[in-house]
Design a protein that fits this description.
By secondary structure, this protein is α/β, with parallel strands linked by helices. It has three domains: 187 residues, Rossmann fold, CATH 3.40.50.880; 179 residues, HUPs (Rossmann fold, 3-Layer(aba) Sandwich), CATH 3.40.50; 101 residues, 2-Layer Sandwich (GMP Synthetase, Chain A, domain 3), CATH 3.30.300.10. Helix content is 32%, strand content 25%. It contains 14 helices and 18 strands. A nine-stranded mixed sheet has the order 2-1-3-4-9-8-7-5-6, sandwiched between helices. A hairpin with a 7-residue loop joins β16 and β17. About 3% of the residues have low confidence. Bound molecules: xanthosine-5'-monophosphate. The site of xanthosine-5'-monophosphate (XMP) has 11 residues, from loops. Xanthosine-5'-monophosphate binds next to loops.
Length: 513
C-alpha cells in the first residue's frame, strides 16, 4: 500500500488489537494480518515502514509453532517483536529461548537501557513497571544484539540491534500497566521507522470521501441505518461524499428506547440524502403476540426486519452498492485480514442478500470504534449519536422477559429513561460501556401508601468491558442506585421493586435474553 504504515503480524496474541490501537494513537496507520497470510513478496509489495510481531500462546520450539523466514529480518525494514514475537526473533536469528523456572505474570519492575532508542525519551525512567505474561524467555542473545531491558527473572527483557533496526521486548508495551508503554511504541514507529504521524480522522475523512466518489461514480447506494454509531457515522460520511445518491432506510421496529426513533429521524431527515423511516411497530407486535421464548423472539424480529427492509428497498429499485458499517475489529476477528466481512452482529437479521445490488462497500472497515467516533465528530454528528452505547438489534424486545405487550414496552421505556438520565447526571455515562433496564417477568408484593401492590420487578444492568466478550458489573455508587430506584418506583406505574444485576460475563451474558 502507499504511504507510511506499520504492518502488525498476528501470532495469536490476546493483545493484537490493542497493539494496533496504540500505533494508531500515535497517529500512524497500521494493519493487522495473520502471520501465515503474509509472504515476503507481500511485504515487498506492501512496503511497510515497520513491522510489529504480536505475542502468541506458543513456544518457539513447539512443533508447527508460528514462524517467519530469516530473510524477513534482512529486508532493511525495522521490526519490533513483542513477547512471543521477541522470542521468535531471537530464535530465528540464532539466539536461545528457554522455559522460565517460574512464569512471570503481571506488573514487574524493569530496568531499561537508556541508550536503546525505544527507551531514550526523557520522561522514561531507568526503572519502571512493565506488564509481563510469559513462560519462555530469551536466554541467549543472537549475534550482534545488545540487552536493552531486564527484570529479576528475565535477563533479556529487551534486546536490540540498532544497525539492523531490530528490537524486541518480552513485556507488553501496549498494555496500560506498562508505564510509558505508549512512549516506547511512539519511539519505535516514529524514531526507528520514521513515520511522521499524519494519520488523523480529518485526513481520513478527506481521503475516504474522495475514494467513495471514485468508486460509486453516479451509482445509487443503499444503507440500513439503525441509529447506532457505526451506521450513523457511515451515513454521515456517505452523505458528504455522494449526497442524494444515498438512500438510508431506518426500520423503526418500535423497540428503540424512549424518543430514540424520533431522535434518529431528527438527526438525519434534513440532510441532503434520501431518508426513509418505516414505522413498523404494529407489524412486529402482531408477529410477537404470545411469543415468550427468547430465541423465537429474536428470530421473528430478524425475519420481520428483513421483510420490511426488503419491501422498502424494492420501492427504490436496483441499487448499485449496499453500504455496511463493518469496522476493523469485525475484520480482524473474522481472521481473514481482507475478505469482505458479513457483520455477524448486523442490526438484526444478517445481510439482506435479497436486495438487488452489485457490490458491498464498507468505508469504515479499517477503523476502530474510537476512530469511528472521532470521524463522526469530525463530520459534525451530534454527541448523542457519536457516544451512543451499543444497543442490540432486537432492542427492548429482548429486555422484556417473556411476552411483549404495549404496556410492558411503555413501562420499560420510562424506567430505562430514568436510569439513563440519572447515570448521565452522575457523570458516569461515558465510563460505563453499557447500562440499561430490564423488565423481568417477576411480580412481587409491595406496599404503596395504605395499599398492597403486586407489581413488576425491574432489573438494572451496567457493565464495564473492552470487548463485550467478557464484562464486569459496574460498581455504581449506592447513592446513584438509590435515586434511580426511588424515582423508578415513584414515577413508573406497575414497578414496585428494583434490583441491580451484579453478575459478570461469563457466566451471565450482558443482555438477559
Ligand atoms: P451478550 O448479551 O451476548 O451481548 O453478552 C454482548 C453485546 O452484544 C450486544 N447484542 C447484540 N447486538 N444484535 C446486536 O447488534 C443483537 O442481536 C445483539 N444481541 C446482543 C449486547 O447489547 C452487548 O453489547
Amino acid at each position: 500500500m502507499n504511504g507510511q504504515h506499520i504492518l502488525i503480524l498476528d501470532f495469536g496474541g490476546q493483545y493484537n488489537q490493542l497493539i494496533a490501537r496504540r500505533v494508531r494513537e500515535c497517529n500512524v496507520y497500521c494493519e493487522v494480518k495473520p502471520f501465515d497470510k503474509v509472504s515476503l513478496d507481500f511485504i515487498r509489495e506492501d512496503k511497510p515502514s515497520g513491522i510489529i510481531f504480536t505475542g502468541g500462546p506458543n513456544s518457539v520450539y513447539a512443533e508447527g509453532a508460528p514462524s517467519v523466514p530469516r530473510e524477513l529480518f534482512e529486508m532493511g525494514i525495522p521490526v519490533l517483536g513483542i513477547c512471543y514475537g521477541s522470542q521468535l526473533m531471537a530464535h530465528v536469528l540464532g539466539g536461545e529461548v528457554s522455559t522460565c523456572v517460574t512464569s512471570e505474570y503481571g506488573k514487574t519492575e524493569t530496568e531499561y537501557d537508556k541508550d536503546c532508542p525505544l527507551f531514550a525519551s526523557q520522561e522514561l525512567p531507568r526503572k519502571a513497571v512493565s506488564w509481563m505474561s510469559h513462560t519462555d524467555y530469551i536466554s541467549k542473545l543472537p549475534k550482534g544484539f545488545k540487552k536493552s531491558a531486564q527484570t529479576w527473572n528475565c535477563p533479556f527483557a529487551g534486546m536490540y540491534c540498532e544497525e539492523r533496526k531490530l528490537y524486541a521486548v518480552q513485556f507488553h508495551p501496549e498494555v496500560n500497566h506498562t508505564e510509558h508503554g505508549i512512549t516506547m511504541i511512539d519511539n519505535f514507529v516514529k524514531k526507528v521507522c520514521g513515520c511522521t504521524g499524519d494519520w488523523t480522522m480529518e485526513n481520513y475523512a478527506e481521503t475516504a470521501i474522495k475514494d467513495i466518489r471514485e468508486k460509486v461514480g453516479s451509482g445509487k447506494v443503499l444503507l440500513a441505518l439503525s441509529g447506532g454509531v457505526d451506521s450513523s457515522v457511515l451515513a454521515a460520511l456517505l452523505s458528504k461524499a455522494i449526497g442524494r445518491q444515498l438512500t438510508c432506510i431506518f426500520v423503526d421496529h418500535g423497540f428503540m428506547r424512549k424518543n430514540e426513533g424520533d431522535e434518529v429521524e431528527a438527526a438525519f431527515k434534513d440532510w441532503d440524502i434520501n431518508f426513509v423511516r418505516v414505522n413498523a411497530k404494529d407489524r412486529f407486535m402482531d408477529r410477537l403476540r404470545g411469543v415468550s421464548e427468547p430465541e423465537a423472539k429474536r428470530k421473528i424480529i430478524g425475519e420481520e426486519f428483513i421483510r420490511v427492509f426488503e419491501a422498502e428497498a424494492k420501492k427504490i429499485g436496483r441499487v448499485d452498492f449496499l453500504a455496511q458499517g463493518t469496522i476493523y475489529p469485525d475484520v480482524i476477528e473474522s481472521g481473514s485480514g481482507d475478505a469482505a466481512v458479513i457483520k455477524s452482529h448486523h442490526n438484526v437479521g444478517g445481510l439482506p442478500d435479497y436486495v438487488d445490488f452489485k457490490e458491498i462497500i464498507e468505508p469504515l472497515r479499517m477503523l476502530f470504534k474510537d476512530e469511528t467516533r472521532k470521524l463522526g465528530q469530525e463530520l459534525g454528528l451530534s454527541d448523542t449519536l457519536v457516544w451512543r452505547q451499543p444497543f442490540p438489534g432486537p432492542g427492548l424486545a429482548i429486555r422484556i422477559i417473556g411476552e411483549i405487550t404495549d404496556d410492558k414496552l411503555e413501562i420499560l421505556k420510562d424506567a430505562d429513561w430514568i436510569f439513563r438520565e440519572e447515570i448521565a447526571k452522575a457523570g458516569l455515562d461515558r465510563a460505563l460501556n453499557q447500562y440499561f433496564a430490564v423488565l423481568t417477568n417477576n411480580r412481587s408484593v409491595g406496599v404503596m401508601g395504605d395499599f398492597r401492590t403486586y407489581d413488576y420487578t425491574l432489573a438494572l444492568r451496567a457493565v464495564e468491558t473492552t470487548d463485550f466478550m467478557t464484562a464486569e458489573f459496574s460498581r455504581i455508587p449506592y447513592g446513584v442506585l438509590e435515586v434511580c430506584s426511588r424515582r423508578i418506583v415513584n414515577e413508573v406505574k406497575n414497578i414496585n421493586r428494583v434490583v441491580y444485576d451484579i453478575t459478570t460475563k461469563p457466566p451471565a451474558t450482558i443482555e438477559w435474553e
